[in-house]
Structure formats: C-alpha cells, structure tokens
From TrEMBL:
Molecular-function GO term, any one: ATP hydrolysis activity
Classification via SUPFAM superfamilies: P-loop containing nucleoside triphosphate hydrolases
Annotated Gene Ontology cellular component terms: plasma membrane
Topology versus the membrane: Peripheral membrane protein
Location(s) in or outside the cell: Cell membrane
Pfam families attached to this UniProt entry: ABC_tran, oligo_HPY
Gene3D superfamilies named among the record's database cross-references: P-loop containing nucleotide triphosphate hydrolases
Assigned keywords, A-Z: ATP-binding, Cell membrane, Membrane, Nucleotide-binding, Transport
Boundaries of every ABC transporter domain copy: 4-253
Protein family according to the UniProt entry: Belongs to the ABC transporter superfamily.
Protein name per UniProt: ABC transporter ATP-binding protein
Amino acid sequence: MLDVRGLRVEFRTRDGVARAVNGVDLRVAAGETLAVLGESGSGKSVTAQAVMGILDTPPGHITGGEVRFRGRDLLTLPEEQRRRLRGAEMAMIFQDALSALNPVLTVGDQLAEMFLVHRGTSRREARARAVELMDRVRIPAAAQRARDYPHQFSGGMRQRVMIAMALALEPALIIADEPTTALDVTVQAQVMDLLAELRREYAMGLVLITHDLGVVADVADRIAVMYAGRIVEEAPVHDLYKAPAHPYTRGLLDSIPRLDRKGTELDAIRGLPPSLTDIPPGCAFHPRCPRARDECLTDVPPLYAAGEDRGSACHFWRECLHDAG
Ligand code: SF4
Ligand code: MG
C-alpha cells in the first residue's frame, strides 16, 4: 500500500546541509503496523512528514526517492490532490494534540468539519457523527464534551480527540508520530491500546513512530530502526526482540528497564547520535559501536538481507545474530 524508496531529505541550516533522511526504503502492507524506531534526530519524523507531504519547515526539501501510495507517486501529485488525500486516505496523529487542534473551535465542531468538508453531510448529521466518533474513542459523556474546547481536555483525552480526527474519514493509513510521548505512563498504555484496537477494527495500516522500544512490542508487526537518517535494521517484531542483527538495536534493547534486572545499571549506548550536518563516514554508528573495526570507518554498510524478511545495515550482522542466539 505504501512503498517508499530511496527517500532523501535535506535541510539548509547555518551549519551547512543537514542530511536528515539518507535513502530510506519503507513498505507498509494494508492492515499492517510498522514501527519506526529511533532517537530524536534520527530522521523518523522528517520521513513521516515527507510521506504525508507536510514537510513545511521551509528549508527542508526532498532531494531524491519515490513515495508510492496505493499505486500513485505522491511526490509528483499536484498539491490539490495531495491535500484531498490527506485525511481521506492517509491521516496523521501528532505528539502534541494541543498545537495540532484548532484552539478556537469546539472539539465537536472540529470533528464535524471533517464530514462537512470531505463528505458533504448536513450540519446536523456531521454533529451526530462527531459525537459518535468521540464515543468510539471512549471519551466519557461525548455529547456533552463535544461542546468543549481542546484546552479543556486532559492530555490523554486530547490525544483521543486527535485519534478520532484521524479516524473520521476511515483512511487506509495512519501515521502516528510519538502519539503517547507527552502522556504519563498509565495513560500512554491506554491510548496505545485504543489505537491498536481501532487499527484492527478499521483494518488500517499504521506507521507508528517512536523512540520507545517498550511501546511497540505488543502493537507492531514489523520494526524499522533508524539511525542518522537511515534504516539500520528492519525485521518482524519478534525476530528483532529475540535476536537483533545490528549493534545499535542491541544497545536499544539493552537500555529498556527490565524487572528481572532490578538493581543493575542500565546499559545505555555510549556517546550521542551524530549531528546531521556532520555524519561520520563509513558506518554512521561506528563512533558508538562496540563492534566497530577498520572497514566500518570507511565502508557504508548497505541493508544486507539478514534472513527471511529482515535486513541489517551492519557488515557483521552474522556475528550479531550468532551472539544473540
Ligand atoms: Fe558497528 Fe561496523 Fe556494524 Fe557499523 S558496520 S554497526 S560500526 S560493526
Ligand atoms: Mg520527532
């Protein structure tokens, strides 16, 4: 359904050209959930914005690649058609609902607007469907709360409103960028469960962008791990957890707090992600990699086929798998 190939995005900054996305390939089948995992600055949000066609930060531009969605090449589609596609066929959920929602419209009116504009329903019917949707995302007393403004909702409830907005036109694909990051842990789990449940119910494809490996295990079918604007590992979720084929993924897994290791230090990955204006040569991860050898400093690893339906951009993926198993 979604097929991204060789996507490249650059930003002009005071420090030079930032290569935010450096040749990313992504595929999402209908009804599938793909988690895109990475630290901040790994290029995951920029990838999502490029796919949605909302790369609006002025200096950012797509310098290469293809984004195909249901057979159409989105990068050459006229903006007018692109706009119609957004919401109707693909929708996005952002981390910060408060800035994504219109502060001067009631939540009910914002939802109703979707049906008025895109479906041409009567005002009365649009209102009724707005309340129905709010009920669907389990906002208590939906009919009453439809008259409230976004700031009158708690963070978790506001995130539900944004999920309702995204679902309104029953798109084939939802891209959720850190949808629960701003919420506290208990609410995070509730919102994530709701999103997973609705995804199944509506049989939508979902791209879940997150820095938190902890939230994806139960939700995603596959994971793509990003580092310095590239995908460094891609695998079905259970394979990746069982045996990561890239040292960066290994590091991420080792830094998840686990109950069975209570009292021991967490093994965080040493060092910091590179600046996107100054990506290290060879394997971009080499300054932080416990396995790095000479060739890692010079040879950019391609995404090697590292088993059935999985890939690793590490020259030594075999060793990684061997040591993990
Ligand atoms: Fe580490 Fe080398 Fe593999 Fe990069 S290619 S992850 S530096 S071992
Ligand atoms: Mg981000």
